[in-house]
Design brief:
Two copies of one chain form a homodimer. In chain A, strand 2 and strand 3 (78-85) form a beta hairpin. Helices cover 53% and strands 16% of the residues of chain A. With 116 residues, the first copy, chain A, is of the alpha+beta class. In chain A, helix 1 (16-28) crosses helix 4 (87-111). The longest helix of chain A has 25 residues, at 87-111. The first copy, chain A, is globular, with a radius of gyration of 17 Å. The first copy, chain A, has four helices and three strands; from the N terminus they run H-E-H-H-E-E-H. Chain A has helices at 16-28, 33-43, 52-64, 87-111, and strands at residues 31-32, 68-75, 78-85. Chains A and B meet through helix 1 and helix 4 of A and helix 1 and helix 4 of B. The structure holds a DNA duplex (30 and 30 nucleotides).
Chain lengths: 116, 116
DNA sequence: TATAATACCTAAGTTCCTTATACATAAGAA
DNA sequence: TTCTTATGTATAAGGAACTTAGGTATTATA
């Protein structure tokens, strides 16, 4: 008999989600919401689970801001909404990735000052 | 004439603050609030500014959770509240630092999958 | 035939932060 | 002398970004 205690869905840090979405779309041309949740699960070996309650509002907001374009498709009689980066979405991706790199550098300076 | 545009007080990512506080106290035995804000400014070369509105409630909460002990002092006729880690605060520090390392690893797997 | 997987969505609540304000002393500049 | 800056604490209102908990609908699987 095995008892497995999983670390509680390791929290997203504020602001990470948009960066993740943008980066994935930057690599994959177009993706739909459910696909994003699955891809993140794969890439992080199950460590990060994007909840729909976070994902869909985020996608809608990015679209409203003009960073994403939508294209609706019907596959197997099921709806899919494919998102892709706009031009300004691509620019924002670069800036978000720089911000993340900066954040990681800053945190390492605080937490591991010997290496900095 | 110089015009200097500073990147707007580079945002803290949610959840980072507690980790920073705990780590600093882990290294410095005891510190007071104002000192923490100054130390963070130094260590990050001005990139991260801990606001009092974030710091003091965070310190109070960590104390209420039993992770910090307080000791009031009067220096130059001014009040100081020195905080130090309790035993469980030290344990929590370890766990928070592991969490941060994990988070950084996870984000790198997403953002830079070739390196992972 | 019920459950899981696929696929979308929103609303309420929580947490953590920013912004703004307040109080008080000491030091320095105008 | 008086205003500003630095030191030091604190709280309250507001917002942004999550979690949790629902809801709808189709297809595949046990």
């Amino acid at each position: 008999m095995y008892i497995c205690i999983v670390m509680s869905n390791s929290k997203l840090y504020k602001g990470s989600l948009n960066t993740i979405i943008l980066k994935l779309l930057n690599e994959n041309d177009k993706m739909y919401g459910y696909e994003i949740t699955q891809r993140v699960k794969e890439l992080t070996k199950g460590e990060l689970k994007i909840t729909e309650g976070a994902l869909y509002p985020a996608l809608h907001k990015l679209e409203a801001e003009g960073l994403l374009d939508v294209e609706v498709a019907k596959v197997d009689n099921r709806l899919r909404k494919y998102y892709k980066l706009t031009e300004s979405g691509t620019k924002e991706t670069v800036s978000k990735l720089e911000e993340l790199a900066e954040y990681i550098k800053t945190m390492q300076a605080l937490v591991n000052p010997k290496l900095a």
